[in-house]
Amino acid sequence: MEPELKVGLAGLGSVSRTILHNIQTIPNVKLTAVADIRQEPLDRAREQYGVDTYTSVEAMCESSNVDAIWVCTPNLFHTEHTIIAAEHGKQTVSAVQEHGWSSADACLQALLAARDALGLEYVAWIEDRRDGAII
Ligand SMILES: NC(=O)c1ccc[n+]([C@@H]2O[C@H](COP(=O)([O-])OP(=O)(O)OC[C@H]3O[C@@H](n4cnc5c(N)ncnc54)[C@H](O)[C@@H]3O)[C@@H](O)[C@H]2O)c1
Predict the structure, then answer these.
(1) 30, 59, 64, 72: which sits with the fewest CB atoms below 10 Å from its CB?
(2) What's the number of domains the chain is made of?
(3) Which residues line ligand 1 (CB under 6 A)?
(4) Which domain holds residue 21?
């Protein structure tokens, strides 16, 4: 049997609607858990997708039913949630998509420091929406 990557999605806002749908179509990937501070989208996700639900990203990261975390919470939580996921040994996808280069840079520097401290690999995609540059 092919290995399966069990993914937990952090943040069930507007962007999550696309992710929740598309993730079902990726081979060898299974959505197993979601986290949000709001109960209503958690209940809906449990009903629609049969996933485990958590009211904090940290609690979701403690689950052995999750291999990787997709961070889709508001921008100001990206650094914190990505570091929490990394500290729990989870592969992590997050967007460093702040408004203004200085805050994006601060976010990236914090993530790189965490990567070095934890000895993990980290891939960043940095996009400047003003001119479309990808760094
Ligand atoms: N909206 C877009 O078109 C778009 C496109 C690409 C990327 N993004 C990025 O995706 C991310 C999410 O965007 P969105 O539009 O879905 O935002 P949103 O505000 O609609 O949703 C954020 C969700 O995170 C939850 N949340 C807030 N604090 C939390 C916490 N501490 N722990 C757990 N959950 C928490 C909220 O309850 C909400 O459900 C942002 O970083 C955004 O930049 C957005």
Answers:
(1) 64
(2) 1
(3) 10-16, 35-38, 41, 57, 72-75, 77, 95, 97
(4) 5-95
